[in-house]
Write a structure and sequence with these properties.
Layout: E1 28-35, E2 40-46, E3 54-56, E4 63-65, H1 83-90, H2 93-111
Antiparallel strand pairs: 1-2, 1-4, 3-4
């Protein structure tokens, strides 16, 4: 049974208050992205990491690129698709008819051959 102490096993003052007292943060660099709306997004990456070509703008959600003069275009939003629409993309009408006939045959067999 626990004693109810939320900070059991820790002492006040046992760890440094600021991370820079005992450790050095990893080297970082700031990369700037621009979106088609003219928003500027600054993102920090590790110094040895390659930045991606595009980044989502934090203000409008559109893609932002590294070239201020030539930002990527607005992303096209796909309309909502129902489950049936996705199934129809994968199956032909003939496949659908065959699956339906098979399912109906199983139901008829279970009910006793109606």
């Amino acid at each position: 049974m626990s004693s109810g102490s939320a900070i059991r096993g820790s002492r006040v003052g046992s760890s440094p208050m600021r991370p820079d007292e005992r450790s050095e943060p990893a080297p970082r660099r700031e990369v700037t992205y621009w979106c088609a709306a003219g928003h500027e997004v600054e993102v920090r990456f590790a110094a040895d990491a390659a930045p991606p070509e595009t980044w989502d703008c934090i203000r409008c959600g559109q893609p932002a690129g590294l070239d201020r003069a030539n930002p990527p275009g607005k992303s096209r939003t796909e309309p909502y698709k129902s489950h049936l629409a996705y199934v129809k993309e994968r199956r032909s009408d003939a496949d659908g008819e065959a699956i339906l006939a098979e399912a109906l045959a199983k139901i008829r067999r279970r009910r006793g051959g109606e």
